[in-house]
Amino acid sequence: MVTITDVSRHAGVSRSTVSRVVAGNGYVSEAKRRAIEQAIAELGYRPNTLAQALRSNRSNVIGTVVVDVGTTYFANVVYGLQQATRAAGKALMVSSGYADQDEEARAVIELVDRSCDGIVVYLERPMRADVVEIVRRAGIPVVSIGRNQCPVSRGTVTLNNFEGGRNAMRHLLERGHRKIVHMSGQADFGDTVARLEGIEAALADYGMTTGDIHVVSGNYSQEFGYDATAAMLREGREFTAIFAGDDDMAAGIVLALRDGGRRVPEEVSVIGFDDAFHAKHLWPPLTTVRQPTQELGEAAATMLLKLIAEPQSGPLETIVETNLVVRSSVSVPAKERQVA
């Protein structure tokens, strides 16, 4: 195994000079730096990260818990986290909590036990009291994305779901829709609650409430979108527009409408939320609310790195904005077109 002594001999410099280059701190002349980097490349030297962690009391690992890393949404959040942590020379350890309090607790404890320098959490359930105490005793900085379910978080990054929900519903109302369905995800999820509050605000501007529209709660999936829409068609429910909780759900809605003989947007307008990759490739291309998930991850990681570097800083807060992306899946209701 190649050691730091081997590198120093090969480069003709002291061990301490090699150490400064490897650690990335302290002054080293450009000539010596090039000689060391060449020696490292030729010898295939790899630093002992465990030994470095013991010396510096830093693991150089950032932990994160998201709802489900297997979904496109959270994969993009993790991508943003990794972009920021890698640029800072930190490794990223990822776990899923599956919106289950015990699974979330297990994931957080595992990251604490692996001596992560800091943790980013995206939790849908309140952190268990015993886990809060474990994190507090460990003294590890925590940043929360979305609803802050961790009492010891020293930073929060929030997506403006309220404004996204309000803008989407306002778009439908401005186009003349009143027979509207809002198909939401899990009713107790933070994103769902905030979006519904935005919807209520938009309706209030038109003298309406959620009692004047039809709200269906389920889960953020194409299957739910399809099944719920097919059920409404069988029941004979009248509607001119559907506001889907996310783009996966919207894809299921569009398919169910097509299978049911309803044209989009001529007979039913559809609007989504996310601006996922497939949104612009649906037919017709989907009007939706863009939420920059990669930016969400980058903002959380950047905030956590600041808390690690400046332990006395905080509490910190960042709001990431959404914006409406207008495509071809929304039009005025058919009756209004006939009158015009």
Description:
This protein has 13 helices and twelve strands. With 340 residues, the protein is α/β, with parallel strands linked by helices. The protein has three domains: 44 residues, lambda repressor-like DNA-binding domains (434 Repressor (Amino-terminal Domain)), CATH 1.10.260; 132 residues, Response regulator (Rossmann fold, 3-Layer(aba) Sandwich); 145 residues, Rossmann fold (3-Layer(aba) Sandwich), CATH 3.40.50.2300. The strands form three sheets. A six-stranded parallel β-sheet has the order 2-1-3-4-5-11, with helices on both faces. A four-stranded parallel β-sheet has the order 7-6-8-9. It has a two-stranded antiparallel ribbon with strand order 10-12. The protein starts with a helix and ends with a helix.
What attributes characterize this protein structure?
Rossmann fold, 3 domains, single chain, 13 helices, 12 strands, 340 residues, elongated, alpha/beta, 434 Repressor (Amino-terminal Domain), 4-stranded parallel beta sheet
Question: How would you sum up this structure in a few lines?
Answer:
Helices cover 46% and strands 15% of the residues.
Largest sheet: 6 strands, parallel
CATH topology term of the largest domain? Rossmann fold
H/E topology pattern: HHHHEHEHEHEEHEHEHEHEEHEEH
Distance between the termini: 81 Å
**Structural class, from helix and strand content?**
alpha/beta
- Enumerate the spans where pLDDT stays under 50 for 5 or more consecutive residues: none
In which order are the strands of the major sheet placed?
2-1-3-4-5-11
When the domains are counted, the total is 3
Gyration radius from CA atoms, angstroms: 25 Å
- What is the CATH superfamily classification of the largest domain? Response regulator
Helicity, as a percent range: 40-55%
Supply the CATH class of the largest domain. Alpha Beta
Q: What is the overall pLDDT average?
A: 91
Count of individual helical segments: 13
Number of strands: 12
Query: Approximately how much beta-strand content do the residues carry?
Result: 15-25%
Under the CATH scheme, the architecture of the largest domain is: 3-Layer(aba) Sandwich
Shape: elongated
